[in-house]
Amino acid sequence: MAFPASISLPSDPFASKLLPLSRISVPAQITVKIELTQLISLRRSKCSSLKASMGSPGFTQQLNDKKLETLAEVKDGRDDIFNDLKDRFLSFKKNVYMKNAEQFESLAKVQVPKFMVIACADSRVCPSSILGFQPGEAFTIRNIANLVPTFETGPTEVNAALEFAVNTLLVENILVIGHSCCGGIRALMGMEDDGTTGFIKSWVVNAKNAKVKTKAVTSNLDFDDQCKHCEKVSINHTLVNLLSYPWIKEKVEKEELSIHGGYYDFTDCSFEKWTLDYRGTKLEENGRIATKDKVFWS
User: Fold this and answer.
1) How far apart are CA 89 and CA 188, in angstroms?
2) Which terminus of the chain has a smaller tally of CB atoms within 10 A, N or C?
3) Binding residue per annotation — 179?
4) Using the 8-state DSSP alphabet, how is residue 164 labeled?
C-alpha cells in the first residue's frame, strides 16, 4: 500500500498543517488519519454547538427580552430601596427637623457633644438606635470590633477622630461599646500566627492582649464562650489603650474626661455599662484594670 510523501490538511484551527509521512511507520500513518478524522469531527461538533447557541432569530430575541426583564427587576429593586430611604428622609424632615428647626439651626453653626462613642461597624449595633442619641449628642466612630490602637501604633482614622473629639470638641465622656456575636472578635480568637496578612487580621491584632488574657482563663470553655468572654475583655483593653494617648491620660487625671465601657447583648436586648477607675487601675502591675459604677439594663 503506497502513501503520499505528505498530506496537506485543510487550513482551520482544528487541523494540522503539513505532516511529513516519510519518517513515520505505517501504524503512525494510520494514527494520523484517525486523528485527522477526529479533529474534523470535533471541528464540526464545535461549529454545531456554536450554531445551536446562536439559535434562531426568535430564540435570540427571547434571550434578549429575558435579559432586559432581569435588568429591569434589578433596577426596580434598587429603586424600591432608595424610594424607601427617600420616604424615611422626608418623614425625618417633616416630623423631626421641621419641628425642631431652632435646634438644627444651632447645630448648623456648632456642635458640642458630651460623648465620643466608639462602636462596632456591625449593622446590628447602632448607638443612636440603642441609646437614643440625638443629633449633636455623640461624636461617633465605628470600626471592626470597636478597637482603638495604642498611641505608639501611629496615625489611623481612629487616632484622628480621638484627637478632634477630645482636643477640639472637648467631649467629657468616651464610651466604647462592644456587643454579642462580634465577628471581629471571632476573627481575632480564631486567627493563627502563621505569617499570613490581610486587612482584617492586621486590624484585629490591635486586641491581641485581650486574646492572650482570654485564652489564659477560658481554656475549659468552648470556642463560642471564649469569644463571648473576649468581647468584654477587649473593651477593657481598649480603655487601657486610650490611656496611651498623652492628652487623654492628662484629661482623665484631671477628671476632665471619663472613659466608659459598654456591652450590648442583642440576643436578649441587655446593656452593661461601667467606668474605668483610673486611680485603681495599675497598668504597671500586669495591666490590672479596675472599674466602677457598673450598671446593668435589661
Assistant:
1) 37
2) N
3) yes
4) I
Task: Tell me the residue type at 287.
Answer: G
Q: How far apart are CA 9 and CA 93, in angstroms?
A: 77
* Ramachandran bin of 181, using left for φ above 0, alpha for ψ from -120 to 50, beta for the remaining angles: left
Comparing C-alpha atoms, which of 3, 65, 68, 57 is closest to residue 30?
3
- Distance between CA atoms of residues 248 and 161, nearest Å: 13
**80 marked as binding residue:** no
How far apart (Å, rounded) are the C-alpha atoms in residues 147 and 238? Answer: 6
pLDDT per residue as tens digits for the range 195-234: 677 899 999 999 999 999 999 999 999 999 999 999 999 9
The answer to whether the annotation marks 237 as part of a ligand binding site is no
> Is 260 annotated as contributing to ligand binding?
no
Residue 6, all three cell numbers? 505528505
Would you say 140 and 119 are in contact if contact means Cβ atoms under 8 Å apart?
A: yes
